[in-house]
Design brief:
Number of helices: 3
Structural class: alpha+beta
Strand content: 35-45%
Number of strands: 6
Order of helices and strands: HEEEHEHEE
Helix content: 25-40%
Strand order of the largest sheet: 1-2-3
Radius of gyration: 14 Å
Distance between the termini: 35 Å
Length: about 110
Amino acid sequence: HGDRIDKMVWFAGIIPVNVRPVGIVHCKEDGEVGIVIGEKTLWGRGIADAALRRLLIYLKQRSPIFAVIHPDNKRSIALFSRLGFVAAGESRNGQVKYSWEDRSCV
């Protein structure tokens, strides 16, 4: 029962571009953050960076904050690394846990 509570979404926000929803950014109760931009044509345009920065500014005093990323997802690894996350070991299903260590990046 306690594990279920830890995995609940604490905050989720829609990412709009020209008033059209294109993705979502979220933070779970246990401190895990994540982001999805659904349209590949919008990848690499700074949308995820801007949305995640805004979420992290809000979460700056909260601890722990981490992300779980598949090792093949080079774009996500680059995004989270730019924002101060560092690899903190293997997580579930072969994915890598990244912990938010350098909070001065936002």
